[in-house]
# Entry
Amino acid sequence: MRDKIALEEHFATEDTVMDSAVFMPDDHWPELRSRILDIHDIRLRQMDEHGIGMMLLSLNAPAVQAIPDVSRAIDVARRANDFLAEQIGKRPDRFQGFAALPMQDPEAAALELERCKKDLGFCGALVNGFSNGSGEGAMRYYDQSEYWPFWEVAHELNMPFYLHPRNPLPEHAKIYEGHEWLLGPAWAFGHETAVHALRLMGSGLFDKYPRLNIVLGHLGEGLPYSMWRIDNCNAWVKAPAKHKAKHKIAHYFQNNFHITTSGNFRTQALINAMLEIGPDRIMFSTDWPFENVDHAVGWFDAAAISEADRRKIGRLNAEALFGLGGMLR
Ligand code: GRE
Ligand code: ZN
# Structure
């Protein structure tokens, strides 16, 4: 398929690039480093070669979210966003952007989101999971009440929010002790992110802000496969739901969430997702530079789905969600 749009596609700045080093074997780090710091050379060639018309770019992980010093978090986010805007300005027909946000300070995050929409023309935000709080082991999840004014701004600005993975803090990762291979993209990323997404759904946030759009990568971080069980386990007991939200969790998943194919190139999983969230809420992505564009595209272009669904997932859904109509070739 030509002219695909891809939206979990990362870059790094000199401030954040080393955050990605731990995820790569030493002998692959020079290659990843050159891929992630590049915008207009290797990346654009990959896009041309594999039928990607546009990438929506986002900062690498965990970057801003893992900076405990709030003023530094604000500064790193601002600089990354300014750099990204400059790069987009050189090829607005091929690149658009997601804001990095200093979620450690909800008010500063809302202001940066507004700046990124109004001054820089970004089409959403991408945040790497919880933010480090002050003090050892402190984590801030965005269902917490101090974040609701931030969500009000995101809702008002109609800016989709991509909740991207990060690892749990070492002091909260005891379950993985001695099994470090489970950290990162193999398992811990998805688990961490799925729980965060469920916290948002169960908090009642989407009852208050019903037009909020949250995007998850990796075909929904396992949630499509588990959605029925989350709402229907032990149904014979007929107890009321224990969460604060008005509707079943699946209601929010199907009305406030979108998922992408980043890093999960498996037709069986895609079809499960199409049956649970529907083909209108799934969007193509690769997860460059952590995954290869040819692996994502080779799979997606040939996947056993209808051509109408391929057009929606490959391009049309992203065009509609991010209002990209006017910017595309
Ligand atoms: C990602 O951001 O998607 C990512 C990492 C590190 C390893 C793999 C991966 O940040 O997909
Ligand atoms: Zn990613």
Remarks:
- The radius of gyration is 19 Å.
